[in-house]
Design brief:
Length: about 220
């Protein structure tokens, strides 16, 4: 009985002939503000490591990124960085509310979709929707913090940054030519009525391991 190419890859991975699963979507989209990075004296993981600090502090136990991939030891990471020319910071990771900021608890305020993936991650497709207006970081925090648990959450769509379809659909596709050879295609589509700037910065980096070793 004929087998598909993916079935052959799965068999090679199972028999440890080829490490087709070594690389995959193993990179967290949010490492900040989690118990994984909590070294606070009072055990308050939500407030110990904020989104604002994430771009200037070293993580201890992992990394994060948008539409990212890494090896199964997370030694080498690849992810997408974006800038619309209006945000005060680069869009490198997902933004959300901590448990105390959201009226319904912790919540990511982004729109992203896992479109497709094979079992060996030989092909993966991801979609991120990036507003052309400045991302309303403080507006999302203050509005949700002022609401009680009986009220609706204040979502990113409610802020108006997607009005008139003024946003980019950013597709990221990965395809493996071999277990160690990964091709990447990034496609950005302007859904708005007017031309708008978009900086696309594919980012490759090594996970910080020296701090962990120093602590040990």
């Amino acid at each position: 009985m004929a087998r598909t190419a993916e079935e052959k890859r799965l068999e090679e991975a199972r028999r440890q002939i080829a490490a087709w699963k070594k690389w995959g979507p193993y990179l967290s989209e949010r490492q900040w503000g989690t118990v994984r990075e909590d070294y606070s004296e009072d055990g308050n993981a939500w407030n110990y490591f904020s989104h604002d600090q994430a771009r200037s502090r070293a993580y201890h136990w992992g990394e994060d990124g948008i539409a990212g991939v890494c090896d199964d030891k997370q030694r080498l990471c690849f992810a997408l960085t974006l800038w619309n020319g209006r945000d005060p910071i680069l869009k490198e990771r997902m933004f959300g509310l901590t448990n105390g900021e959201g009226n319904h608890g912790e919540d990511v305020k982004e729109y992203y979709f896992y479109v497709d993936s094979t079992p060996t991650h030989s092909y993966m497709k991801y979609l991120y929707k990036y507003p052309q207006a400045a991302y309303p970081y403080s507006q999302l925090v203050t509005t949700n913090r002022d609401r009680n648990r009986h009220q609706q959450e204040y979502e990113l769509l409610d802020t108006g940054v997607f009005d008139d379809d003024r946003y980019f659909d950013v597709f990221v596709e990965y395809a493996k030519a071999s277990p160690e050879d990964i091709l990447v295609r990034i496609t950005a589509v302007n859904r708005g009525p007017d031309a708008a700037p978009l900086e696309i910065l594919p980012t490759l980096w090594f996970r910080n391991t020296w701090y962990r070793c120093a602590r040990d």
